[in-house]
Amino acid sequence: MKKKIITLTLIAALSVSTTAFAAPVPRESAPLNATDAQIQITENIIGDILDEVQTGKLGYTLAAGYANTKIRKAVMANQTDGNGYGILSPIAQNAIHVMRDKQLRPDAYAQAEEELKVLLADVITAVQNGMDMDAATKEAYAKIYQSVNPNFNYDEQFSLDTCYRDIPAVGMEKFTVARKLLLEAQK
Predict the structure, then answer these.
(1) How crowded is the C-beta side of 118, counted as CA atoms within 13 Å?
(2) What is the pLDDT of residues 132-164, one digit of tens each?
(3) Which pTM does this prediction carry?
(4) Cα dihedral angle (172, 175, 180, 181), rounded to 10 degrees?
């Protein structure tokens, strides 16, 4: 009897510890049109894969393949509250990509955060005071581009056909960190 109780306690403790530390989807990586419910559904489906990515046990390609398979199976089994593969897969892919990139280039993300806290201080304050997130994101992205090329006109360039745009090269970590800072300011 004692052996059964100890075994059950150990199993319960192990199951709690594995789910309690599941890596969450970084909210700043989610597509702009993703809802919190869709992010949570994706997190529930691929949390174990995100753990493996975060600890460096899985690279992007394998993790993305495993995630797509799990999401496809969950959609086909009607376990996604009506959300389809077309939104859940991009949430997973972006999360895996950002988590892997952060793991491989932590210094780039730390430096981007330092720089963007200064560059975007007025936008962050505006979000804290109720600015619309879509407008704040657009303004933040424009400031990031203008930090590379002061003459960059966001509206003008993005109104052109993609083959005619002249957009400064900027690392994705800056946009990811900008969204993270804006989301933190919104809370």
Answers:
(1) 5
(2) 999 999 999 999 999 999 999 999 999 999 999
(3) 0.80
(4) 140
